[in-house]
Amino acid sequence: MKSIWNKKCIHGKFHRLTTIIIAGICTVMSGYLSPSVVGSAQTQQRLKDYEAISDSYNSVIGYREYLKQADQTRPDEVYVIHANDYVRTSDMKITEYEDYEGEEGTSVCTGSSGLIEYEVTIKTAGLYDMSIRYYPIKGNGSSIQ
Questions:
Q1: Residues 82 and 105 sit within 8 Å (Cβ to Cβ)
Q2: DSSP helix/strand/coil, 97
Q3: What is the arithmetic mean of pLDDT over 117-137?
Q4: Parent domain of 25
Q5: How far apart are CA 29 and CA 23, in angstroms?
Q6: Cα 91 vs. chain centroid, distance in angstroms?
Q7: Span 35-51, pLDDT tens digits
């Protein structure tokens, strides 16, 4: 009587089991990679629009390169932009506070996403030092940017 554990028998059963497992994995993976699943992702931008935007990042020189070719004039003018002098907001709730946390004047509390925009007319072109007073408040746990 032959032993059921001979090499041929084990190899044959192992081979069939391996084939079944691989076929099962392929079947499961094909569900994840099927065109109906991949095709359901949509975007508002076309690829050429995306490429135009991403290419523009590569065309912008870095700050050090800019300094090499920029006029090194350092004007004495001082520009103060108050928090509530914004000209535009987008996708953001704005709340204004007077003398918030002991800081004199009007403070602006912005949402955790969106845009707030300021315009400044600079009289003399040159290099300026900039500073901003920023007070982080507890939010949704995302990093402060």
A1: yes
A2: strand
A3: 88
A4: 7-37
A5: 10
A6: 16
A7: 444 444 555 666 777 67
